[in-house]
Amino acid sequence: MIWNETKECMSRDQMTALQSARLVKLVDYVYHNVDFYRKKMQNLDLFPSDIKSIEDITKLPFTTKDDLRDNYPFGLFAVPNKEIVRIHASSGTTGKATVVGYTKHDLDIWAECVARCMTMAGIGKDDIIQIAYGYGLFTGGLGAHNGAELLGATVVPMSTGNSKKLTTMMVDFGATAIACTPSYLLHISEVLREEGLLDKIKLKAAICGAEPWTEKMRHEIETRLNITAHDIYGLSEIMGPGVACDCQYHNGLHVCEDHFYPEVLDTATLAPVADGVTGELAFTTFTKEGIPLLRYRTKDLTSIDHSTCECGRTSARISRFKGRVDDMLIIRGVNVFPSQVEAALVDVEEVTPHYMMIVDRVNNLDTLEIQVEVDPKYYTDEVRALEALNKKIAHVIQQALGVNAKIKIVEPQTLVRSQGKAVHVIDNRKLY
Ligand code: DLL
Fold first, then answer.
1. How far is the CA of 308 from the centre of ligand 1 (A)?
2. pLDDT for 302-333, tens place per residue?
3. Residues with CB under 6 A from ligand 1
4. Calpha distance 269→189 (Å, rounded)
5. CA spacing 20 to 30 A to 22: which of 50, 65, 189, 394?
6. How far is 419 from 383, CA to CA, in rounded Å?
7. Helix, strand, or coil here: 297?
8. CATH 3.40.50.12780 domain residues, the chain
9. What residues does CATH 3.30.300.30 cover in the chain?
10. Alpha helix segments (H runs only) across 207-331
11. Which long-range contacts does 27-30 make (Cβ < 8 Å, 24+ apart)?
12. In angstroms, what is the span from residue 51 Cα to ligand 1's centroid?
């Protein structure tokens, strides 16, 4: 069984040896197959032969989301398109999506990592699991789906958006596990309560991620549903869900570090920090063929712990996420950058670049209101004209962000002008 955890129970020395061997191979691979990395290494006077062990990783260049955007869509791929069997994408910082491609082998490794995470959450072949992450370009749905199938669980591909159907099927099918965002699971718990179904469910485990949440929120989910809830982490650039997950001790998320090498970096100097110190997480993908990445800066803030966990696993653990270095928001599981709103509004002649995003959580579902200031030239009291403009902006925003927003058109000169760095977001969400 390829998802069994023998690899995770290697000693630290064995893991280091494996990582060194894989890094040497990876650097040779990217140097010869990705122009971007060859040029970056040449600029640093660096050759594959300079990388001899994992300790040499700090000699290598970083990769950022902007690098993916600048090489949109397939510029960082290391294989010809005929080798790519799947594409996923997530939000870029402006108009262009961040695109990733997977070979057949990449999909196999991905499924194995997700299967490992589900095993950590106590999910196995006897379980019936509802996958309630979005299916499509987002990695959540298909990523969790393939991992659960590899595990041999019975997969119910619910996707998002129909809570009543989900709760009805949860009861009728006797679902024992669910994979979805934590805020959606809290919402589901409310729907179950309202429908009087709470004592009819057989749920025992949830594997939640794709957005920030707290220990308090995890306990709340566990208490409401009488289950155990696990924290699963990942990002599309590295693979999707399944990069790391917490075990039954919930003492940090075990990283699948035979495939993804984690570094926590000082946010000012970008030098790796010691265990326990918070910094920006970066990953190097050891085994990816489609779009291998060197030291990809996730912008997620965490700390790392290399000690052996109570569960016996020796893999490095990253702490629950403490925020981000940039201004990315996650709204209903969708990554949203204020810069995307700005880029979208430029195309609407009738408005100025002044806007304010107000994010809230109502019944555990995220809401987004965008206040937009109309250009004085176009401002009118005429209700129908304003309604038409509102509709137009809502459409442009939906297309740009992939989430629906309530648009509020405000009169010219009403939004606060900031003295320093412009403030474009008011996030009223309370994560318990
Ligand atoms: O959110 C992949 C995923 C899907 C992970 C389903 C877990 C479950 P992206 O859309 O590329 O990929 O967004 C990645 O989401 O950099 C974090 O900021 C945030 N994120 C993901 N998981 C967690 C988590 C998927 N468990 C971005 N806790 C990441 C906090 C998370 N933040």
1. 25
2. 999 999 999 999 999 999 999 999 999 999 99
3. 90, 133, 138-140, 209-212, 231-236, 240-241, 298, 300, 321, 324, 330, 335
4. 44
5. 65
6. 33
7. strand
8. 1-326
9. 329-431
10. 215-225
11. 27/51, 27/60, 27/294, 29/78, 29/292, 30/78, 30/292, 30/294
12. 30
Distance 235 CA to ligand 1 centre (A): 5
Give the domain 329-431 fold.
GMP Synthetase; Chain A, domain 3 (3.30.300)
What single letter denotes the amino acid at residue 181?
A: T
Largest pairwise CA distance in the chain: 72
CA gap 243, 414 in Å, rounded = 44
CATH 3.40.50.12100 fits 1-326, yes or no: no
| CA-nearest residue, atom 30 of ligand 1 | 212
Q: Which two tokens stand for residue 93?
A: 């910082």
Task: Count helices and strands (H / E) in the chain.
Answer: 10, 20
Span from the CA of 265 to the centroid of ligand 1 (angstroms): 19
Cis peptide, bond prior to residue 73, ω within 30 of zero: yes
Atom of ligand 1 nearest to the CA of 299: 16
* Chain segment 363-418, per-residue pLDDT in tens: 899 999 999 999 988 888 888 889 999 999 999 999 999 999 999 999 988 998 76
- Look at residues 402, 372, 314 and name the one whose alpha carbon lies nearest to residue 11: 314
* CA–centroid distance for 341 within its chain: 20
For 7, the token pair is 């690899």
The best mutation among 335, 401, 429 to test binding of ligand 1, ranked by most ligand atoms within 8 Å of the C-beta, falls on 335
Round to whole Å and give the CA distance between 61 and 300.
Answer: 18
Q: What is the mean pLDDT of residues 202-211?
A: 97
In ligand 1, which atom is closest to the CA atom of 207? 8
Q: How far apart are CA 121 and CA 178, in angstroms?
A: 11
The answer on pLDDT for 1 being more than 50 is: no
Rounded to 5 degrees, φ, ψ at 182 are: -60, -40
CB 368 within 8 Å of CB 359: yes
Assigned token pair, 339? 């810069």
* Per-residue tokens: 66: 């902007």
